């Protein structure tokens, strides 16, 4: 296949689709495209520095006029702002799903992250990115002293031994291993206060941060391994035994590093830029259902919301029916609703695991009628079709039916990292590692182009600011022009507030129906949660930990337990689709807030144009009004985006807040029948709060946040348009005679901007 020709202004998606899927990563045309964007930013920054040298004296005056302050603030913001953002890819998978192995293949470094065929390998969240540095670097961040004290208090809840008859479960064993790693053998027999006073058996850096820097990937991998390899399996000694060639001192150092695992919060790894992973792409290895540590669990939730794309990773043998996949998909959908995520992908790993005889027997075919190669490809095709349909069915219940994600034809990828390295049965292309790289590049290229285009447009608007400031004095009845526009804009802003209120009113009926469902199902949902531990003699410790953590606990036995979300879920089931319709960005309908905003912007710009022509307003001022309106509306959209998360989370947070004192009381229960007494306390408390309209209060809380958003929108628009009109129609300042000519800088920015079209 011929290589696609480079085109600096070409469509990134077309380029990624046309390129041949080979072992090579970035093709020449894609490299040229990225370098073109980088050169544009570099030239734009240089342009701004030159301009600053010409006009900085204006910003250093003893008394800066209001219009100059407006100009200065915008310029400083542009000068300090980066044109590019991060494309964060979240690899979201359960224990043993093969996230590390997949990442190694994507990076083309076979054993960079620890891998194992039998157990979970990475013990914390690992972030991998590239930078223009010749070194391989890792920064290991530890829990603060306060965070560790909080963790220690929680670990002692899991160590309580009443009613367990000496039986230990995974959560208790996990707590014991953590204490022994930090404080040494026998730490679990000491009290919480004793350990607070005790000196740790390991060396903890005062900075709570460890930095590793190496010239080669293999060197960093070896140094990093003890920190991120999961040591929570009682296998530290066996890991050490295999390193017979290491000196005693080296082995002792590695052994101590391994014992830091309970304190590690997260790890950030930076690699030199390569053709495989462009600068600006960040891979995040995210634990599947959260973390038992409070701080790491909070980071888990925030990381998901920060991701541009979320990949749910599943072993080929656990593609269907796994509970944790439902949890992960639900969190991914939530990230689309309230976070930055615009893409969900399901990645099936280890597809080379094929028993051809069993496969053919299940299909009713004769033995030997198909090769292993063909059986794998046929199975992969079937998996894509079946799992893709199941995911779409699930997402359609929570996202608008015409959402961009639901239109994707490639929701599911079937990969084999093992075959990527050995190519015994599958070709490199058939392992789909290169296809996933295509997917990453397409996301990154399009995101980068959109960001640089917006940045260059903002600079052009700034030049219009300058034009307004130095253009000839206003002619005609300037106060009358401004007053007319001020009054019109205020009226339209109030109409926008009213229209937004009507859009938000669409939530009333779904919220009402959701509350009814929550009232009806709350007891059954709690019973389902409690029934998970009916065969566990140590379930009372799990319940106590659940209460200590305000209703949220990530158990090694029962996965993620969250009473607050469980109680709120029936409401979310009713509101997810209308919520998505309100805040959708594509394919606006009458139900979407964006349609109301776009109509407001169109009417405002139409009025500016009409008044400008009628009153002979200069083109400079009119262009400024029109372009600054776009800037104001973009800022409004960013404000709405940030508020979205607060609105969506308000239900579960209000429920947690109401139940918080009850959790505290339940956590104090001990003695005989602890498990049943905690259950009864929680049942009773929830019933009591439901009777006192807990779900109705949650509903009203969400409605109040919608109302707050409406008020904040109108207040922001009133302030921004008032400032804009004051600047546009401010009296001519004689200081503008001292402004230098900047036509050359403007022409260069216009040329750079046009090269993006």
UniProtKB/TrEMBL annotation:
The UniProt transmembrane annotation reads none
Record GO terms (molecular function)? GTPase activity
**Where do Low complexity bias regions lie?**
1-13
Instruction: Please give the residue ranges the record annotates as the region Disordered.
Output: 1-24
Query: Which InterPro entries does the record match to this protein?
Result: Dynamin_N, Nuclear_GTPase_SLIP-GC, P-loop_NTPase
Domain Dynamin N-terminal, residue spans: 89-333
- Please provide an example of a Pfam family that matches this protein in its UniProt record: Dynamin_N
Superkingdom of this entry's organism?
Eukaryota
State what protein this is by name: Nuclear GTPase SLIP-GC-like
Question: From what organism does this protein derive?
Answer: Apteryx mantelli (North Island brown kiwi)
Identify the coding gene: LOC106486462
């Amino acid at each position: 296949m011929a290589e696609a020709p480079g085109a600096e202004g070409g469509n990134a998606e077309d380029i990624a689709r046309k390129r041949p899927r080979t072992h090579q990563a970035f093709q020449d045309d894609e490299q040229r495209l990225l370098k073109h964007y980088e050169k544009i930013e570099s030239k734009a920054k240089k342009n701004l520095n030159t301009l600053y040298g010409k006009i900085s004296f204006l910003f250093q005056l003893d008394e800066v006029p209001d219009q100059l302050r407006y100009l200065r603030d915008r310029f400083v913001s542009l000068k300090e702002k980066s044109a590019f953002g991060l494309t964060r890819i979240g690899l979201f998978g359960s224990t043993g799903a093969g996230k590390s192995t997949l990442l190694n293949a994507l990076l083309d470094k076979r054993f960079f992250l620890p891998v194992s065929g039998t157990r979970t390998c990475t013990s914390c969240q690992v972030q991998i990115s590239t930078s223009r540095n010749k070194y391989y670097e890792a920064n290991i961040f530890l829990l603060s002293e306060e965070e560790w004290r909080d963790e220690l208090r929680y670990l002692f809840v899991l160590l309580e031994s009443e009613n367990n008859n000496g039986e230990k479960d995974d959560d208790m064993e996990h707590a014991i291993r953590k204490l022994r790693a930090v404080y040494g053998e026998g730490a679990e027999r000491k009290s919480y206060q004793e350990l607070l006073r005790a000196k740790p058996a390991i060396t903890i850096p005062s900075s709570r941060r460890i930095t590793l820097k190496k010239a080669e990937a293999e060197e960093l991998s070896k140094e990093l391994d003890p920190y991120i390899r999961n040591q929570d399996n009682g296998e530290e000694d066996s890991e050490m035994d295999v390193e017979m060639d290491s000196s005693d001192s080296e082995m002792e150092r590695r052994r101590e590093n391994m014992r830091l695992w309970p304190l590690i919060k997260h790890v950030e790894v930076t690699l030199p830029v390569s053709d495989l992973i462009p600068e600006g792409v960040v891979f995040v290895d995210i634990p599947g259902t959260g973390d038992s540590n409070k701080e790491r669990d909070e980071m888990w939730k925030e990381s998901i919301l920060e991701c541009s794309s979320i990949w749910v990773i599943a072993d080929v043998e656990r593609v269907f029916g796994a509970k944790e996949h439902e949890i992960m998909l639900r969190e991914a959908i939530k990230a689309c609703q309230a976070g930055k995520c615009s893409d969900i992908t399901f990645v099936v790993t280890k597809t080379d695991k094929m028993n051809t005889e069993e496969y053919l027997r299940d299909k009713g075919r004769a033995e030997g009628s198909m090769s292993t190669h063909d059986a794998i490809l046929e199975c992969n095709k079937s998996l894509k079709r079946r799992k893709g349909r199941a995911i779409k069915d699930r997402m359609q219940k929570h996202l608008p039916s015409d959402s961009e994600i639901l239109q994707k034809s490639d929701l599911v990828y079937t990969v084999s990292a093992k075959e990527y390295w050995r190519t015994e049965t599958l070709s490199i292309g058939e392992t789909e590692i290169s296809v996933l790289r295509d997917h990453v590049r397409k996301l990154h290229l399009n995101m980068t182009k959109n960001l640089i285009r917006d940045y260059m447009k903002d600079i052009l608007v700034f030049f219009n600011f300058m034009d307004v400031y130095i253009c000839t004095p206003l002619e005609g009845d300037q106060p009358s022009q401004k007053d007319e526009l001020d009054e019109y804009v205020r009226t339209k802003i109030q109409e926008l507030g009213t229209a937004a209120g009507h859009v938000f009113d669409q939530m009333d009926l779904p919220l009402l129906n959701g509350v009814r469902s929550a009232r009806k199902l709350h007891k059954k949902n709690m019973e389902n949660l409690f029934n998970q531990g009916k065969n566990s003699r140590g379930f009372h410790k799990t319940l106590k930990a659940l209460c200590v953590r305000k209703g949220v606990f990530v158990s090694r036995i029962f996965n993620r337990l969250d009473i607050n979300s469980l109680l709120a879920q029936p409401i979310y089931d009713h509101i997810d689709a209308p919520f998505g319709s309100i805040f959708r960005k594509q394919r606006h309908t009458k139900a979407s807030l964006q349609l109301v905003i776009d109509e407001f912007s169109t009417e405002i710009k139409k009025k500016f144009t009409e008044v400008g022509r009628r009153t002979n307003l200069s083109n400079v001022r009119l262009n400024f009004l029109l372009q600054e309106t776009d800037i104001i509306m973009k800022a409004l959209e960013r404000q709405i985006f940030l508020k979205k998360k607060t609105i969506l989370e308000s239900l579960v947070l209000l429920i947690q807040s109401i139940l918080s004192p009850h959790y505290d009381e339940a956590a104090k229960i001990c003695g005989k029948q602890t498990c049943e007494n905690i259950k009864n306390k929680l049942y009773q408390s929830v019933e009591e709060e439901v009777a006192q309209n807990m779900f109705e209060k949650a509903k009203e809380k969400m409605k109040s946040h919608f109302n707050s958003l409406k008020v904040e929108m109108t207040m922001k628009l009133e302030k921004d348009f008032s400032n804009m009109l004051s600047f546009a129609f401010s009296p001519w300042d004689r200081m503008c005679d001292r402004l230098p000519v900047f036509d050359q800088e403007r022409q260069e920015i216009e040329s750079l901007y046009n090269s993006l079209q």
